[in-house]
Amino acid sequence: MRDEIERFFLERGCLVEEKVIEEIEKRGGLDYVIKNQNRLDFSGPIFSIDRLPAVNDFSIVKEFNINGYPGVADSFVDMFRSRYHFLHEKLNSKGSHFFLPVSKARKTEGTVFVSGMVQDYSETKNGFRILEIEDENSSMKVILPKNFKDIIIRDEVLGFSGRFSKDGEAIFAENVYHPEISKELQILDYGVKVLVVSDIHVGSKKFMRDNFLEMVDYVNSEGISFVIMNGDLVDGIGVYPDQENDLEIKDINLQYRELADLISKFGNHARIILIPGNHDIVYPMEPQNPLPPEIAALFPPNVISLSNPVWIQISGRIFLLYHGTSIFDFLESIPGSTLNDTALVMKEMIKRGHLAPEYGRNLSFIPLKTDYYLIDPVPDVLVTGHVHDHSVTSYRGILAVNGSTFQEQTGYQRMMNFNPKPAIGTVIDTSDLSYETVKF
Ligand SMILES: [Fe+2]
């Protein structure tokens, strides 16, 4: 690739500095030069590093990292409060309606607009759904319209328009509103390629080593600048009953050593971004810290180890990486859904402006004052994994990817109705957010 880059510059009358070639390789190699040739100045005899357009191509936007065990019991109250206020403001920021908090809604004759957090819900014998909604000071009942078929998730924030019942105790809702985050796509004149994969599961007997190595070859030959590995980097130890029968490497430290060895096969031009999942060596409560320093020290310098979830910026685009434990919560609320309905789940997350509304169903949270699961800032790309599906969808201007796996179906997964779609990469071009899928 170096020769090709040199030749490209020579054909345009320029010698090119060694440093420039190194930087261009980091940005995607010849592909970068071809794409950006209109921005490059070939007028002088020597193309020096200062003539390469500057690019802030990676930064951490929001991450989670704590020492020790944080919080006190009432931190959850603060967390729910901050969630309610943020999403209440989101509903009101659209400007079309003004929603009152539950405690300010008073019985009036006409239509009233209210927002609240869903505390509980039930269904009457004749099919009406009744919600109990609340803010920090009071609660009320909302009877949903019969034609409202959308799923309801406990602890999500919704807006309603409707009329008060005669006794003023409940609202008969006519419309239901979600916070709905969105992003407007702007085409950038510079882009890099980002490969998204997930659930590598090194150490499992079912780890697909050959396919992983094919992926490494692809990254090295196609000028991929960033590889995102979205959690479950190794299979771990004792994650589910009798897991040891499924393990090829029965020591978690050795599993990470093997992962580090595999990662060292990527060329230096590619930066590898890692977040933990529920199989990794971090505590199972969320949000999860980055991998511990002694594990991170095993990896080569082009590896960036981050928290779950985390917001990062790559070449002007915000990526929100979340491993996806809450996917089960959503699926359990969607009648007839399967573990391959991840595209639908990611849409439901975007609708709610939240990655994991329900407290205490499939995942436990660390008691924190801040709600790290609010989708704020709004990303250009949302990445999940966890259920070993592969899907790509776009909703309200946000590209959403579930990142496949490099593990074939295990007996445990068969029992849990996992139907993996393994060894598929999603390659995103950050300039226009176009993507292609690649089978390894
Ligand atoms: Fe996994």
Q: Please tell me how large the radius of gyration is.
A: 24 Å
Mean pLDDT: 91
Q: List SSEs in N-to-C order.
A: HEHHEEHEEEEEEEHEHEHEEEHHEEEHEE
Fraction in beta strands: 15-25%
Distance between the termini: 22 Å
CATH topology of the largest domain: Purple Acid Phosphatase, chain A, domain 2
Number of domains: 3
The CATH architecture of the largest domain is: 4-Layer Sandwich
**CATH class group of the largest domain:** Alpha Beta
Question: Can you give a write-up of this model?
Answer:
A hairpin with a 2-residue loop joins strand 14 and strand 15. The two termini are 22 Å apart. 41% of the residues are buried. The chain has 10 helices and 20 strands. The model has no long low-confidence stretch (mean pLDDT 91). It is globular, with a radius of gyration of 24 Å. The chain is of the alpha/beta class. It folds into 3 domains: 53 residues, no CATH class; 268 residues, Purple Acid Phosphatase, chain A, domain 2; 83 residues, Nucleic acid-binding proteins (OB fold (Dihydrolipoamide Acetyltransferase, E2P), Beta Barrel), CATH 2.40.50. The protein has a 6-stranded mixed beta sheet with strand order 3-14-15-16-18-17, with helices on one face. The site of fe (ii) ion has 6 residues, from loops. Fe (ii) ion binds next to loops.
Explain briefly what this protein structure is.
With 440 residues, this protein is α/β, with parallel strands linked by helices. The protein has helices at 2-11, 18-26, 30-35, 75-93, 209-221, 252-263, 293-296, 327-333, 342-352, 411-415, and strands spanning 15-16, 46-47, 58-62, 100-101, 112-123, 129-134, 139-143, 157-164, 170-177, 193-197, 226-230, 271-275, 303-305, 310-314, 317-321, 381-384, 390-395, 398-403, 424-429, 434-439. Bound molecules: fe (ii) ion.
